[in-house]
Write a structure and sequence with these properties.
Elements (H helix, E strand, L loop, with lengths): L1 H4 L5 H6 L13 H6 L6 E4 L6 E3 L1 H7 L1 H4 L5 E4 L5 E8 L7 H13 L12 H11 L5 H12 L6 H12 L3 H17 L6 H13 L8 H21 L5 H5 L6 H9 L6
Parallel strand pairs: 1-4
Antiparallel strand pairs: 1-2, 3-4
Length: 266
C-alpha cells in the first residue's frame, strides 16, 4: 500500500509515472484523480502522518457519512478568492486506519482487489462499510462473503473468533452476513458448512465489548437463516456441539446453546 499511503503526488508526478512515450488519458482514471493533489479539497488525517488528500464531492456521492459533514475551513487562494477545505480525523471514523485507507482507495478505483480483505479484517470491512453508509456496498459485501466462504476447516475457528473480537460487529450486521453466506452456499447447491453454522456462536463468544446482547433476536435470526435443513443438521451436534464442530475453543458448547437453543427433530 506504499503507493498511496505517502503524501499524494501532484498531477505532473502522475503523468511522469506513465513512461516517456505515454500520453496522459483524456479523462482521469480513479487512481489518477486520487493522486491529483491540485484538485483536492479534503484532508483525511491519520495518526502518525501519511494523510490522504481527497475530493469531497466524490466522498459525498458515495458515502452518507461524508455527505453529512458540514464543518469546513475557508482557504485563501493565490488570486484572493476563497475555497472550502475539509479536515476529517480518521480516528473519528474507525480504529482500523488501514481498512479505511483501502475503502477510500476502492471508492476511487472501483476495483474490489484494492480492498485486500483477509480473515483478520473481514468483519472490520463489514462494520466500516455500514458506518460510512456507502451508496453501493455490494462489491465490499461480496468480497466479505467470498472471504468467509473459503473458511471451511476447523483451523479457521480461532482466526474467526479473533476477527469478531477485533471488529466488535453489531448483531444485526453479523446476522446479515451470516444469511448472505448461507444463501450463497445453498444457491450453489452446497451443504451449509459447519464453520458457517458456527459464526453466530463465535460472535457471541467474542462479545466482550459492553454491548447488550438480545439473545432472543440472536437465536431467532440464526435459526431463521439456517432454515429447516440446517436445524436438522445441527441436531447431530448432540450433547457436545464442540465435538461435532471439531472446535476446541472454551465455552463453545455454552455459546452454542445460547444461539441455537436445544434443537429437536420435529
Amino acid at each position: 500500500m506504499d503507493d498511496y499511503r505517502a503524501a499524494p503526488m501532484s498531477g505532473s508526478d502522475v503523468v511522469g509515472t506513465m513512461g516517456s512515450n505515454s500520453k496522459p488519458p483524456s479523462r482521469m482514471s480513479g487512481l489518477a484523480k486520487l493522486l491529483d493533489r491540485k484538485t483536492t479539497d479534503t484532508r483525511l488525517m491519520f495518526e502518525g502522518g501519511c494523510d490522504m488528500y481527497l475530493h469531497m464531492p466524490i466522498l459525498r456521492a458515495k458515502s452518507g457519512y461524508f455527505a453529512s459533514l458540514s464543518e469546513f475551513v475557508k482557504r485563501q487562494n493565490a488570486d484572493g478568492s476563497e475555497t472550502l477545505f475539509y479536515q476529517v480525523a480518521a480516528a473519528d471514523i474507525t480504529d482500523q486506519p488501514e481498512v479505511l485507507r483501502r475503502i477510500i482507495l476502492y471508492l476511487y478505483t472501483h476495483r474490489p482487489s484494492d480492498l485486500a480483505i483477509t480473515v483478520k479484517t473481514v468483519f472490520c470491512y463489514a462494520k466500516l462499510s455500514d458506518f460510512l453508509d456507502l451508496s453501493d456496498p455490494r462489491d465490499i459485501m461480496t468480497s466479505v462473503v467470498d472471504c468467509l466462504l473459503h473458511q471451511t476447516e476447523p483451523c479457521c475457528y480461532p482466526m474467526l473468533f479473533r476477527a469478531f473480537q477485533r471488529a466488535e460487529l453489531p448483531v444485526d450486521n453479523m446476522l446479515h452476513i451470516f444469511k448472505k453466506i448461507i444463501d450463497k452456499q445453498e444457491a450453489g447447491g452446497d451443504e451449509i458448512c459447519r464453520v458457517t453454522m458456527s459464526l453466530p456462536v463465535l460472535w457471541l463468544m467474542a462479545e466482550e465489548h459492553g454491548m447488550e446482547v438480545d439473545v432472543h433476536q440472536l437465536r431467532k435470526g440464526a435459526r431463521s437463516a439456517i432454515g429447516k435443513v440446517g436445524r436438522f443438521r445441527l441436531i447431530e451436534a448432540s450433547e457436545w456441539p464442540s465435538e461435532w464442530f471439531e472446535c476446541d475453543l472454551p465455552c463453545f458448547n455454552e455459546a452454542f446453546e445460547d444461539v441455537y437453543g436445544r434443537l429437536r427433530a420435529t
